[in-house]
Every structure is written in C-alpha cells, then in structure tokens.
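Hi R.,

Here's the input for the 2-acetamido-2-deoxy-beta-D-glucopyranose complex you asked about:
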Amino acid sequence: MRIFTKLSAPLCLLFVFFCLKTAFSSSIHASSFSTTHLCSHEEALALLQFKTSFSIDYTVWENYCGQNYSKMESWKEGIDCCSWDGVSCDNVTGHVIALNLSCSFLYGTFRSNSTLFFLKNLQSLNLSWNDFRHSKIPSEISQFTRLKHLDVSFSQFSGQVPEEIAHLPKLVSLNLSSSDFYDDSLELILETTTFKNLVHNLSEVRELVLGGVNMASANPRFFMNLSSSLTTLDLSNSVLRGNFPNSIFRFPNLKNFFLSGSENLTIDLPSSNWSSPLQQLYLHDMDCGRRLPESIGDLKSLQSLSLVYNNFRGQIPSSLANLTQLTSLSLSNNQFSGVLPPWIFTLPLLEDLYPNHNKFQGQINQFSQKSLIHLDLSNNKLQGSIPNSIANLVNLSYLDLSSNHFSDFVELDMFLALQNLETIILSSNNLSLRMNVDANFTLPKLTDVFLSSCNLSEFPNFLRHSNGLQSLVLSKNSIHGNIPEWICEKDDLKILDLSHNNLIGKIPNRLPKFLSVLNLQANYFDGNIPFGFPEGCGLQNLNLHGNQMEGLLPRSLVNCSMLEVLDVGNNNISDTFPHWLESLPDLQVLVLRSNKFHGFVQSTKESPSFPKLRVLDLSSNDFRGPLPVRYIENFKAMMDIYRDEGSPEYMNIGSYQYSLVVTLKGFDYELQRILTIFSSIHLSNNMFEGEIPDVIGKLSSLKGLNLSHNNLTRHIPPSLGTLTDLEWLDLSSNELVGKIPDELGNQFNTFGNGSYEGNNGLCGIPLSKSCDGIGTPPSFFQEKDEFWRFGWRVVVLGYGCGVFVGLEMGYHVFRAGKPKWFVSLFDGRPSQSGRKMRKARRLVQRRS
Ligand SMILES: *[C@@H]1O[C@H](CO)[C@@H](O)[C@H](O)[C@H]1NC(C)=O
Ligand SMILES: *[C@@H]1O[C@H](CO)[C@@H](O)[C@H](O)[C@H]1NC(C)=O
Ligand SMILES: *[C@@H]1O[C@H](CO)[C@@H](O)[C@H](O)[C@H]1NC(C)=O
Ligand SMILES: *[C@@H]1O[C@H](CO)[C@@H](O)[C@H](O)[C@H]1NC(C)=O
Ligand SMILES: *[C@@H]1O[C@H](CO)[C@@H](O)[C@H](O)[C@H]1NC(C)=O
Ligand SMILES: *[C@@H]1O[C@H](CO)[C@@H](O)[C@H](O)[C@H]1NC(C)=O
Ligand SMILES: *[C@@H]1O[C@H](CO)[C@@H](O)[C@H](O)[C@H]1NC(C)=O
Ligand SMILES: *[C@@H]1O[C@H](CO)[C@@H](O)[C@H](O)[C@H]1NC(C)=O
Ligand SMILES: *[C@@H]1O[C@H](CO)[C@@H](O)[C@H](O)[C@H]1NC(C)=O
Ligand SMILES: *[C@@H]1O[C@H](CO)[C@@H](O)[C@H](O)[C@H]1NC(C)=O
Ligand SMILES: *[C@@H]1O[C@H](CO)[C@@H](O)[C@H](O)[C@H]1NC(C)=O
Ligand SMILES: *[C@@H]1O[C@H](CO)[C@@H](O)[C@H](O)[C@H]1NC(C)=O
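And here is the predicted structure with 2-acetamido-2-deoxy-beta-D-glucopyranose in place:
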C-alpha cells in the first residue's frame, strides 16, 4: 500500500498501477527490491510495464541500427533497474533520469496511459529508431517537466505534435525528425500555434531538429524569435512555405543549419554580415535565388558547405577561397558555369569536393592539396587532359570524372600512387586509356571501376590483383579477345558489364560466384550458353543480347530466383518458349527477340505466371498458334502499376543502371535506363494467328503494343480502347477486318494509318478508307500523320546525340501534356514533388 500513498497521479494512473501491482505482485519477492537497489520499486515496475506494452520486432529498422538485440532483454525483475541497459539513475536519489531506448526494436502503439509517464524525474529521453505505428505523441509528455533532451526521431510517430510540447521549458535539445518515406500523409505536423508557443517557451533550446516535419501552416518568421542560444537548426525536408528570415545567418551561436526540400519556401541570402559562427551549412533543393553572394565568404568558420539542387548560376564567388577551414564543398546540380577556380584545388583541408552536374568548363588546374578523399567532377563540360598532379592525391578514395569532355591519352600508371582508391569512374569522355605493358601495379582497395567509352583495346590487367572488386564496367570500348581467366575468379564481383566490345569465343563456364549483373551485350560470343546456374544463383540481370549464341536456354536459369531481366535477343538460340521461367517471382523483362524460338506460347499451369513481367519481347521468331491468352490474363504488373508521378524510378543496382534495347518501327534503340513503370509487349514478326483476345484490354498500364506481321484475323477488340497509357500501337500486316472500334479512333488519335496498314479488311477512323463509303477530310490524316512522324523524327534525331536522350525525348513528345516530371529527367534534377526521393537520399546521407 506504500506505493499508493506516494502517488499523486490522476485516477486513471491509479488504475494503471493497480493493474501493475496485480500483474507483478505474485512474482515479486520482497527481497527483489532490497535496500541495495538504487532504483525505486515504483519506477522499476513502471519500466517493466512499459516493456510489456510493446512487442520486440527485430525487423524494425534492422539494417539501420547496427545491433541485433534489444536493450530490454536485460530488463528483469530482481535486478536493480539502474543497471538495466539504457537506464540511468541519479546516483543519490535513485530516480531514473535518463532513458535511452533508441534502436530497441519496439513495435506497437504508444498510448497516453503509458507507465513511462511515472518517471517524473526524466531529464533525457531517447526513443529514436523504433516503430510506434503512427501513434500520436501523447500530450502527457508535458509531465516530464525536467526534460532537457527529447529525441523521438525515426520512431514512426505521426499526426499533430501536441501543444504540450511547448510546456517543457528546460528543453535543450528536441528531435522530431520523421521518417515515413512511403506516405507523406503519415508525417508529423507542427501547427502554427504550437510552433509559436514552442519558440516562445523554449528559451534554452540549443538543438532543434525538425527534419521532415510538416510545418506548412507555420509562419517561418517565427524562427527569428528562437532562443539566441541555438546552435543547431535542422529543417531538412520539412514542409515550410513563405520566406525564411535570413536573420538566421546572424544568430550568435548557430553552428549547424540545414534547410532543404521545401519547395514553396524562399530564402534571400544576405548580401552582407553573415555573422553566425556556422560550421555546417546545407541549403538543398529550394529557392535561394540565382546568385550565391560574395558575402558568403564571411562565414569564416565554415567546415562543410553544401548547396546542391538549387538554381545557382554564374561563377562561384571567389570569397570562398577565404574559407580555409572547409573540409567539404558540395555544389552539385546547379547551373554554375565558368572555370573551376584554381583556389578550389588549393584549399588546405578540403576532403570532399563535389562540383558535379553543373556547367563548369575549361581545363582544370593542377591539384596541390593532398587532403582530398572524394572528388566528383562528373557531368560538366570540362576539357583538356587530366592533370598529372592527380597522382599527388594519395588519400583519394572516390574519383569520378565521367561525362565531361576530357580528352587525351591517359596512361593508367598515372593512378599508381592512389593506393586508397576505391572507386574510379572515367566513363564518357574522349579519353584513350592505355596501359604500359611492363607496368605491374595494383590498386588494392578498388571496389568499383567504371571505364565505359574509354577507347580501351585490352582488359586493364592491373585489376587482376584488386581483390575487393565489386563492379567492373568496361562497356563501349574496343576490347578484343576472350574474357580473361582472372575476371572469372573474382568471386566478390557483383556487376560485370563488358557490353559493346569486340569480345569473341565462348562464354566461360565458370563465372564469379556472386554475380548479380552479367552484361555481355553486343559482342561476338558464340556457342551454347554454357553455364549451369547453381542453386541459389543470385543473378538479377543477364544480358546476352546481340551475340551469336546458339543451342537451348539453360533450364538451370530457374535457379536464379532473383532474376529481373533476361535478354537473349538477337542471337541464334533455337528453343521452345521457356514457360519454365514463369514461376520466377521477380522477372520483369524477358527479351527473346530475333532468335529461332518456335512452337506455341502457352502457359502450362493455371496458377499465376510471370507475376512481375512488364516487358515481353518475342518478336522475329517462329512462334505460332494463338496469342498467349492465359499469360496475358496473368500479367498483373502490366495491369496495375503503382503510379507515383513524383518520383521516376529506374531499375538499378546501386549506381549501375540497367539498360534495354527496344525496337520501334524497325529501329533498335537502347534505353540506357529502364523506368520501373515502362511496360510493353512485342509479338511482331511471328506466325501468331486467330483473334486478338479481348483480355488484352486489361493490361491498363501498357505503354507499347506491337502485334504486327502476324496472321491475326477478325476484329480489333474494342477493349483496346481502354489502354489509355498506350503510346505506340502497331497492328500492321495482319489479316484484321472490320471497323476500327471508335474507342481506338477517338482515344488514340496519334496512331495514324501506319499502325494499321497491311490489313486490307480494316476501315474507319483513323484510316482514310471509311466503312460507309464517305471519306473523311484528308487534312485530318495529314495532321495526325505529321504528329506521328514528328514524334519519330525526334527519336531519330536524338539518336545521334545520345541514344537514351533520344528515346526519352521521344517519350516526352508522345506524352505532351502528360506528367511534367519527364522534363526533369533530362537535366538530372529530381522532380519538384519528389520528396520521397529526397527523404531517402537524405537518409542515406545521414547514415553514411
Ligand atoms: C491503456 O489503455 C488501453 C486502451 O486504450 C488499455 O488496453 C490498456 O490496458 C491500458 N494500459 C494500462 C497499463 O492501463
Ligand atoms: C548478434 O551479433 C553478434 C555479433 O555481432 C553475434 O555474435 C550474435 O550471435 C548475434 N545474435 C543474434 C541473436 O543474432
Ligand atoms: C554522482 O554523479 C555525479 C555526476 O553525475 C558525480 O560527480 C559523482 O561523483 C557521483 N557520485 C557517486 C557516489 O558516484
Ligand atoms: C543510446 O543507444 C544507442 C543505441 O544502443 C547508442 O548507440 C547510443 O550511443 C546511446 N546514446 C547515449 C547517449 O548513451
Ligand atoms: C539517441 O540515440 C541515437 C542512437 O541510435 C543517437 O544517435 C542519438 O544521438 C541519441 N539522441 C540523443 C539526443 O542523444
Ligand atoms: C509555457 O510553458 C508553461 C509550462 O511550463 C505553460 O504553462 C505555458 O502555457 C507555456 N506557454 C505557452 C505560450 O505555451
Ligand atoms: C536528434 O537531434 C539531436 C540534437 O541535434 C542529436 O543529438 C541526435 O543525434 C539526433 N538523433 C538522431 C537519431 O539522429
Ligand atoms: C518576435 O520578435 C520580434 C522582435 O524581436 C517581436 O516584435 C515579435 O513580437 C516576436 N514574435 C513573437 C511571435 O514572439
Ligand atoms: C506548393 O505550392 C503548390 C501551389 O500552391 C501546391 O500545389 C503544392 O502542394 C505545395 N507543396 C507543398 C509541399 O506544400
Ligand atoms: C578574404 O578575406 C579578406 C579579409 O577578411 C578580405 O580582405 C578579402 O577581400 C577576402 N578575399 C576575397 C576573395 O573575398
Ligand atoms: C606483379 O606484382 C604482383 C604483386 O605485387 C606479384 O605477385 C607478381 O609476381 C608481379 N608480376 C610480375 C610479372 O612482376
Ligand atoms: C493465316 O491463317 C489462316 C487461318 O486462320 C490460314 O488459312 C492461312 O494459311 C494463314 N496464313 C499464313 C501465311 O500462315
């Protein structure tokens, strides 16, 4: 009964305690809480009850926490609670004063009657990285009147932050970063009154972290009334609107300021007097004006400056040269132009330099600092040769010079001194890489090597001793000969892309054990596809397109249960339809075109087949019989693709993008990236016969359908008219008859005569041959045809300047008036509403 007399809590809590007591009294012996225990009986009970109100789920943030046990495993009766993991007590009073339950795999609703609120003496509470299943933050939080540190970040709280959060006047740090990457409606909302009170009441707050919190209703002006003790303000990916007060740059103690991804927020960078002692400044993905003022050089203490995804133009201010404390400078994805100033390569402490994705041009200076660790100059217009002083950058771990206009011959020995190099990306320049035949050097730490389009004529043998190699991309060179033994022995290797070379011979039997991507497209390999794919084969992308492979498809491919892309197009494979692949759960792209596949295409079973297939290309084979109705009925992924226009996503593994050859109007185009919403069916140039099944109308997310050059008969089913996403349709050269359904004529007015030609029995709009003998005005067709040709002209023009741009441009033209985000694909900038991507990106940045 002593317990009850001590309590001054409300009635409901009395009830809680009653339950607690009944729950535990039977098992707690008097001796359990002997006087040697610092921790009080009540607080121990409260903690134990708190523990039982959640389940422990080891899948909660499992990859983020770097631990595989819950602290609560050590919470047991009979042991002094002050010695439990995550619990800290005042060493005189025995009160629990700090609770660190971060990464405890807690899963369940956080209730307002939680017994945690008994711990009235708490000064620090860390609940980050749990999953409270979108609970609201209970208003009872205000009972922790002594709280100084509150961290509920990444714990899946959502809804409105209670106004009681402003009743914690002692708070020194508050972290409400929210974490739902999938559903913005589940974010935390900080309303204007609560925010105003918080600013007003939290007079001692030094660190305020509101990443991802929705403050759309709050006036950003209130930020200027924050306590002048503020040292950290983190507003990454918060939803804010209006104009952010630039007086923030004059806060006397502000060291870290992060502001990003608020699409409706502007900030006018001050033209003078940035007096804050800022050490880290991140302004990402928002409207900061077009000029970065010279006055930014006032921030003499700056160590890390990141200004990515803004609209900055013009030259980088020369005053940055004065920021000699800088260790990290990120300017990527703006429109900066001019030459890269010489001082950028002399800043004495600089470790990370990211001017990538801008319009910098001209030659680059010699490097004089040795501190650089990450250097990314990619996607600019830099030219000239690579300075030989690069050999001085002995700490360099990441080097990306790709997609510039660097030219000249490069002796690979040049990189010999860079013994810490892990990633080297030189692709897409005008470089000619050469190897000194006598050179015997190795870069032992290399993991990722991207040397596409580098005029290599032989394999870079120095890689032979790089044992940690994970990605080797040597596509679009003129390497000849066989695949060397040593490559086949690199069992860490995950990505091997040797496409577009002059390789010959047989594909080796033994391939690296843990390969995820094998791309040998466009070479001269011949013989059978030899490999017996072992049980547990981890291949995700197998591309043998455009070789001279013969024989059968190895049945052991079914062992590759993670297979997403199988492309054996343009070979001489002679086999029947591989229906045995239909159970592969992740297969998305199956390309068998231009081979000698033959026979009927038929499902062998009733159960779901090819559940994720989005691209099926069987064209130019000897398939016969009816169209594969049962498969079509089951192409779930073409019926119902999750559409989020905000964030185009591509198939990839890490930074390696999958590519795909598609054939449109007889031309092959290489899509250098595969949009995850791209779906098409190509069955042309076979001997399919019978009618087009009505069920094809169910494939509602289909973008392209080509059934041309078959022997299809009877009518076009009206259900085709429901395919509103269709962008190209080719039914030409069949034996189709009857009126083109109105649904098609009206819906797809971009499909001109050509789509249907060679079907002498067809009539009606949009064909000039009318069904009732009354002609339609010829201008109508010319117009449509013009549009059609215009579309194709863009594709073909684009082909010359870069294949994928061409195709995406074409895609864009077809979609005129459709989602805007396609525009954003061209310059590498994410869409305006791609918050999800940004969140994910930010998380990755945080964790790294
Ligand atoms: C808290 O309230 C919920 C219902 O809202 C109830 O199921 C639960 O038993 C209560 N917990 C305690 C400890 O009283
Ligand atoms: C947790 O990880 C450690 C090593 O980090 C390992 O020894 C231990 O077996 C793991 N425990 C469980 C339950 O997986
Ligand atoms: C109690 O903690 C304070 C600081 O928190 C420390 O200075 C003091 O030495 C501790 N006393 C004992 C007896 O451990
Ligand atoms: C809190 O717990 C986490 C996870 O176990 C640990 O990484 C962190 O260092 C702890 N923080 C404090 C202040 O003890
Ligand atoms: C809470 O714990 C996490 C570790 O998971 C740690 O990173 C964070 O700094 C802690 N929060 C506070 C306020 O100490
Ligand atoms: C400030 O906090 C106190 C409790 O500490 C509370 O009573 C008061 O209402 C708060 N003021 C505002 C403006 O929220
Ligand atoms: C939350 O913010 C506080 C204050 O800046 C910080 O110390 C803590 O590490 C953050 N928590 C996490 C999980 O990052
Ligand atoms: C913010 O501060 C300004 C000047 O310091 C003051 O005029 C204004 O009333 C304050 N606003 C709030 C909401 O406290
Ligand atoms: C930004 O403003 C536009 C136009 O008012 C609105 O459609 C959009 O939803 C806003 N974005 C956010 C994140 O509030
Ligand atoms: C660097 O700082 C000095 C002293 O503050 C100033 O005189 C000079 O103009 C600055 N240099 C540049 C390039 O801004
Ligand atoms: C090349 O160097 C490696 C290791 O540094 C050594 O094992 C090998 O024998 C050398 N080969 C030649 C031909 O010198
Ligand atoms: C097309 O199919 C019809 C029967 O539907 C058949 O009579 C005809 O011979 C076929 N044509 C060709 C070229 O196979």
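One thing worth noting: The domain at 576-847 is CATH 3.80.10.10 (Leucine-rich repeat, LRR (right-handed beta-alpha superhelix)).

Cheers,
M.
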